[in-house]
Amino acid sequence: MELAKSNLTMSSREIAELCDKEHKQVMRDIRAMLEQLKQGTDLYLGQYESNNRKYDEYNLPKRESLILVSGYSITMRAKIIDRWQELEAKGQSSLPNFNNPAEAARAWALQYEQNKQLEYERNEAVHTKAWISDKKTATAMNTASQMVKKVDKLEDELGRGKNYKAVKAIPWLLDYFINTHTMYSVVGRKLSLLTNQMGYSHQEVEHEQYGTVKAYHIDVIEAFKHDLDDDLNHLGKFRK
Predict the structure, then answer these.
(1) Residue 219 in contact with residue 28, Cβ under 8 Å?
(2) Residues 50-109: tens digit of each pLDDT
(3) Cα–Cα distance for residue pair 21/89, rounded to 1 Å
(4) Which of 1, 64, 193, 199 could make an SS bond with 60 (beta carbons 3.0 to 4.6 A apart)?
(5) Nearest Cα to 78, choosing from 19, 2, 35, 1?
(6) What is the Cα–Cα distance from 126 to 169, expressed in whole angstroms?
(7) For residue 165, what are the CA distances in angstroms to 106, 121, 191, 218?
(8) Distance (Å, rounded) from C-alpha 27 to C-alpha 226?
């Protein structure tokens, strides 16, 4: 019986540093990768704290991190591979000393608990699959899923969805800026500029007062937020 290996991961911030890229670019690349892998963009998502604020980051296992950098340059890939070798070497050096009875006992106890947890999760998965196999339940779940997708699409079309948001629908905007008409216009121009720079496109959504307004992709909005956090004087005329 072998001790389970620790789940080593590499953060998106570390990948950005090793590859000499901006963190927001690496985050964007990871989201695109996870979408193509059909794994969901929330998988491996975590947070880190900086300047008393929390920011999103990804913590990727070895497989996903190597898939990510497969499109990067050879030099960048080499740095990531070298770093993984360091992490794995440290993981191996942390194995318990089985010549020490107390340490060995703790290791076996930990492994036992891990195996019990895996068994529980496996049984839960079996029960869940059996439950979903019921045709009526599966149909109801599929209907609910389709309704959620329709709501998400409608939210996007109204400029307050998960993927696209109009300026006034950005939830944190008034934490940074004074609420003025000019501020919204200036922020809109900044987001339009970032949209072009990042290779994204905006959406035109209906607005009861102006007819239509622009809605921007959440990656662009996140990049703008990072710019604000990195430079406290950015758009300082309108800041709180």
Answers:
(1) yes
(2) 888 889 999 999 999 999 998 899 999 999 999 998 888 776 655 566 667 676 677 677
(3) 26
(4) 64
(5) 19
(6) 42
(7) 51, 38, 11, 7
(8) 12
